[in-house]
Design goal:
By secondary structure, the chain is of the alpha+beta class. It has one domain (3-90). It is built from five helices and five strands. A three-stranded antiparallel β-sheet has the order 1-4-5. It has a two-stranded antiparallel ribbon with strand order 2-3. Strand 2 and strand 3 (46-48) form a beta hairpin. The chain is globular.
Length: 96
């Protein structure tokens, strides 16, 4: 099975594939997203924000403040992911 077919199968069967449309290079996107991974929880403990996981991405507009979402989505034109076998879209109108 080719990589493209395997990704399609994962996308269809499991919440594990995201597609990001951006003018940024993959290396630039990695650098942009790094600061958003490690977070401090309300109780002072450290946590991992798995924003790349479609189950988490689906909740980002609910759990993040508007300015936090704007900062995360900077440079991202559209973020597509599969959730319960439906394609979902996370967009930010201020993407640069």
């Amino acid at each position: 099975m080719h990589l493209h077919e395997r990704l399609r199968e994962l996308e269809y069967n499991l919440p594990s594939v995201s597609w990001i449309a951006s003018r940024l290079s993959p290396a630039q996107l990695m650098e942009h997203f790094k600061p958003f991974i490690d977070i401090t929880l309300y109780n002072g403990k450290s946590g991992l924000l798995r924003f790349w996981d479609p189950r988490v991405a689906n909740q980002l507009p609910v759990i993040l403040e508007e300015d936090q979402l704007r900062e995360l989505m900077q440079g991202v034109e559209e973020w597509l992911y599969s959730m319960e076998r439906n394609v979902q879209s996370l967009k930010w109108s201020m993407a640069t």
